[in-house]
Design brief:
heterodimer, A: 396 residues, alpha+beta, Peroxisomal Thiolase, Chain A, domain 1, two-stranded antiparallel sheet, 12 helices, 12 strands, 32% helix, B: 698 residues, alpha/beta, 2-enoyl-CoA Hydratase, Chain A, domain 1, Rossmann fold, N-(1-d-carboxylethyl)-l-norvaline Dehydrogenase, domain 2, 3 domains, 27 helices, globular
Chain lengths: 396, 698
Amino acid sequence: MGRTVSDVVFVDGARTPFARAGSLYSETRADDLVVKVIQELLRRNPQLPVERIDDVAIAAATQTGDQGMNIGRSAALLAGLPPSVPGYSIDRWCAGAMTAVTTLAGSIMSGAYDIALAGGVEHMTHHPMGEGIDPNPRYLAEKLVDPEALLMGKTAENLHDRFPHLTKARADAYALGSQEKTAKAYANGWIQADLVPVAARAQDLGWTMVTADEGPRPGTSLEGLAGLRTPFRPHGRVTAGNASALTDGATAALLASDDAARELGLSRKMRMVGYAFAGVDPEVMGVGPVPSTEKALRRAGMTIEDIDLFEINEAFAVQVLAFLDHFGIDDEDPRVNPLGGAIAVGHPLASSGIRLMSNLAKDFELNPTARFGITTMCIGLGMGGTVIWERVGENS
Amino acid sequence: MSTGTLGFADEVVTHARVRTFELPDGTGTFGLITLDNDRDHTRPSTFGPEGLRSLADAVDQVSAIPGIVGLGVTGKPFIFAVGADISALGTVGDRTLIEQFARLGHDVLRKFGELPFPTFAFVNGAAMGGGMELALHCTYRTVSTGATGLALPEVFLGLVPGWGGCYLLPHLIGPEKALQVMVSNPMNLNKQLIPAAMVDLGMADALFQPSEFLERSVAWAADVISGRVTVARPSVDTDAWQAIVDAGRAAVDARIHGAAPAPYRTLDLVAAARSRTRDEGFAAEDEAIADLVMGDEMRASIYAFDLVQRRAKKPAGAPDPALARPVTKVGIVGAGLMASQLALLFVRRLEVPVVMSDLDQERVDKGVGYVRAEIEKLKSKGRISADKANRLSALVRGQVGLEGFAGCDFIIEAVFEEISLKQRIFAELETIVSSECVLASNTSTLSVTQMAQGLEHPERVVGFHFFNPVAVMQLLEIARTPATDEATLATAFAVGKSLKKSCVLVKDAPGFVVNRLLIRFLSEIARAVDEGSSFEDADASMEPLGLPMSPFVLISLVGLGVASHVTHAMHDAFPDRFYASENLDRLATSGRPGVWTWAADGSKSLDPEAVALFQQGNSPSTPEEIRSRVLDALADECQRMLDEGVVGQVQDIDLCMILGTGWPFWLGGLTPYLDRTGVSEQVTGKRFLSPGVASVPR
């Protein structure tokens, strides 16, 4: 019997404002952050009967404590979804939410699901990177992976080694651009629409409302960036200014088959064309988006020239530059991260993938002639992930 | 405003912490106060002088911010604020201090209603007394659907809502609803409000879920400030105001006949609020608070509240809970109505196998059938799930004879009140169960010690006395015999706690506490009637106390047969003090339910056939004389019980009377009442409680 493949559409995405680790969300639970985003998505899409959600997949890189207990299921229950809606949890470190999206998309494409909820959260205050990890001694004994590969900053320095023409100056310039684009996006109100305000408490200060990302530093200058120390290597290139900060935050997105979205009158902001994940040497994990993008394009029968918009995660400026360099795209190409990026707002590990997608949906809105876009990111322990999207036009 | 240096020695200060943020869509800057005493939810936030000053500072701080468009106040997790810190008030002897504290509260709280911008109470959790009044001073209120502990319970404690409630609430929701919240609810077992009810009454304007309560509340506040949302404030009809208060007063009179000042003072304040200014209303509340706090009734109410809140949960004299043995199978001897009620209680609360037994299969089936039918009722009312109903029904079994009790850890007998029958049952049970199985008796008057006579292991026998109806009455008297060992006692207390009863340790003595006092009371009434007093006078004699029901109504409720039986048992034990009325015996035998009958319209009249059975003398007493004799008798009996060591402390007598008979809370307990009226000193030569314990220190 033949099986039809469904189209998957991105219905809607939302996120909490991101806060610096150790700051505004220190006394807020990670699962509560996820719950607020889920509730916001459901509130914005009231025409969706919640019992039609076929599954909920939430990602976190450290699944313990307030990010554990099968957070996909737990957060769904806490958000008030009926117990009949199942849930599961995903871990692909930085690309957790992206993988939640692609996994659920696979279920939708194959006809197993109609509607799904994907999400990601990382509370890096409560769960610093690498909390509780226990690397197998064979890594060292058999020289399988250099221990430096577990320190993301060092892998970024390694990228500077591999591509000497990607200098610190270029990295700093790119970082400044990210801050400026973020500030402009805020000034134009392009970011706020995706945010759900979060009430956060600090016992000694009381309750407050968090309504904007805490991370951006609008006063950034090249001189300021140039003077920052390089914590990962003496006289190195990677600084806190040209890398994303440790951040707390959560994201979520609603996905649906094209048919189900039409049936229920749900918005269809973009359509998934294809996706791919690929592995690279962990020591240079930042280069991951290159093979994953090539693979995704190849399988979709496309080339990089077909891509009109890029949302690439900015774990480190050098890693973005490595991608752009490979594909012959200028450092300041306006198609790249038009709304700014993680260098300004931060990178709560597993959640960022969906932030890229929400951004891309906004990019499509702001660029009516753009047809295809990609969301792509590097992943710790050496991987890259890429999803290709197409705008949904009025006639489709 | 002079806050002066008023201070409470051990105040757990509730800090008012301020943060500001921008409201959406350029609506403006908002200041949010969080109330937090830096303890967890087991120590809710209260206001003492320091906390009030902190709150005043917070308001001033926010008011000074240029461009501020609104002020909100909310609490720590689960708690908004639960009122004035009254722990200090229990022992204060200086009226000026009370007046200062009352005024300070008003001065601070009223700010929330007198700012040039709107204020919002975001009631995230428990809001009681002064905490609820803080919310009422605000322009608007939101409440979380998860909030529990919403009330103005001051009348329950012998106070009035004196930080604005008596003035603000009737002006907000009308005097009728205001009196329901401030008078009827507190007098109705201190009934609380549910969040939705607050909105229905008009006390709150919006309801939001706990998971996003503050976010939704702030968004709503922004809508209100910007004008996107308007909140209707229907004007209050002042024409019917006085009539409503009058009706409220009549209802209180019918209930307590002037026995306690607090509800009346509330009514007075609400009546006068109609035409007073805020200043006048608040000043009158200050005076009322000072008057009441300096009155013995309020001190007694605090004493009673403390008994029920603390002592009830940590019974005096109970052994170390670690000594309790696990109870995984329970036996009930008897399958009559009492035994069936016990079986239902045990299976519901303990969820272990419960075995019932009786003399024949018919009785057994009836008992088990009753329990299963009650379980079905609970299921159909939605109180328990279908799975739970199946589980509980399967746990209840019945059989004739005692063999089914093998393996029981705890057996309670509720058979006919005849000592040799109980001795035989215990003796036979001893051959079937382990040496550690607790053998408990629900007897109300027989000697538990005697029941244990002849047993191999009398140390596992204990009295375990419930009150009717078992599902409702809180009290459980646990009676120790000279032989009862610590492990048995600990197990009994643990079981009582699992049954959600308040357990009081008593010595095995006739009538324990409640029945002994109740029968002494009723027998004095009966004696007065037998001597020639009228039924009306006898029944009205106790009205000034505002007891839940008059003596003869109580006798009817208890049941004449039971009343007669217990009276005789007490008479046998203490012949010179406990009078057994032949008239009542005759009435009991006649089968008539009592001396009163009720017409369809609820009016009460004497039953002529019952009256005809009475042979009375011709020395009637007045109601005052009867009351005096009853109170003297009660004081006398209390003293004897203390001398005999029936309980360790007089507090346990008061706790038993409150929880076992519905002795009115507003009297603050039995012995404080006897002290307060001078009866104790007249009868025994001294007070039961030192001055200051349940009275104003002098």
